Amino acid sequence: MIRSKIAGIGYYVPEKVVTNYDLMKVMDTSDEWIQERTGIVERRYAEKHKENTSILGVKAAEIAIERAGITNKEVDFIIFATLSPDYYFPGSGVLLQRQMGMQGIGALDIRNQCSGFIYALSIGDQFVKTGMYKNVLVVGAEMHSCGLDFTTRGRGVTVIFGDGAGAVVLQPSEDENRGILSTHLHADGDHAERLSYINPGSHGGVFLGKEKFGYPDQEFGGAFFTPHMYETEDIYPFMDGQHVFKFAVTKFPEVIHEALEANGYKASDIDMLIPHQANLRISQFVQQRLKLPDEKVWNNIQRYGNTTAASIPIALCEAWKAGKIKENDLVCLAAFGSGFTWGAALIRW
Ligand code: COA
Question: How close is the Cα of 313 to the center of ligand 1, in Å?
């Protein structure tokens, strides 16, 4: 059987460092509160008017492509995961493609938030395994900083998120025992609004029990954006933090065990766990449940915050660059996030 392998990996984080103390200048929060609840010390914000989500993605993709030993022209499919796209439509995939001179090949956009990279990797894996494509570029990138509420009202969400991008190139593995062993994807839409950014959208308040929400007074049609949304400040992300926390600590271990069992392994076989960097407390809880020592779990949320679809490829690349992932190591990627969606990938490196 053909397996796919990660042939090249790269990441990019913007230069601008925003500390908890910087946020204290614009909202009522504290370094102590943020560190105690999330582990975050600082995050990066992209440069306004110069960088956007696809540009961050390009910077990570260029490194991944170079490390894979190919040129842009050899990429035959693009998968771009983000919840903070440049435009409402078209997606950031085609914008990355245009900047990288790869016009003509397919570009797919993935909207699975914190699980976006795992979903994207799984799709890329299927394309390579079936022999349809030989070089699939998978990108996770976010520019959260332009969509957050920087007043005290938004502090419960805003302090958590940061900007960044990561990318991998998937190729067929020459060794059938190495590469992506399996991927496992899940979702439960019952929790859709618990972590959401509902506008702009066609929802019209239907699921929220507000029938006329968002619709202007006209005979036909509605509007994705209305003055009502600005008036009620319904233009920012919403998170029911405790509800998210409760599910995350259950679903992370569950899907990791599912991936291990599918391949005949147990938790102690993992050489490196790369959890989506949702919150350091969640990662520590998962680590305890799996009884993994510190050196087998990579955390960088302290420096970057939660970069959603970018967090796994950034962390994976950092761990690899630091020499913590070696040939033949068993690497487990796992994510949980808005949707709710969750998933895992097991890789023999
Ligand atoms: N600074 C200071 N105080 C803050 C704050 C901030 N940034 N954000 C919220 N608070 C306040 C609240 O207003 C509340 O005050 P009150 O008691 O006077 O009403 C208090 O802190 C507790 O708020 P609560 O939301 O109950 O805090 P919490 O203990 O649940 O922690 C999270 C909040 C977001 C850190 C926590 O719920 C969490 O980590 N959830 C998971 C989030 C996550 O992982 N998201 C990504 C998913 S991929």
Answer: 26
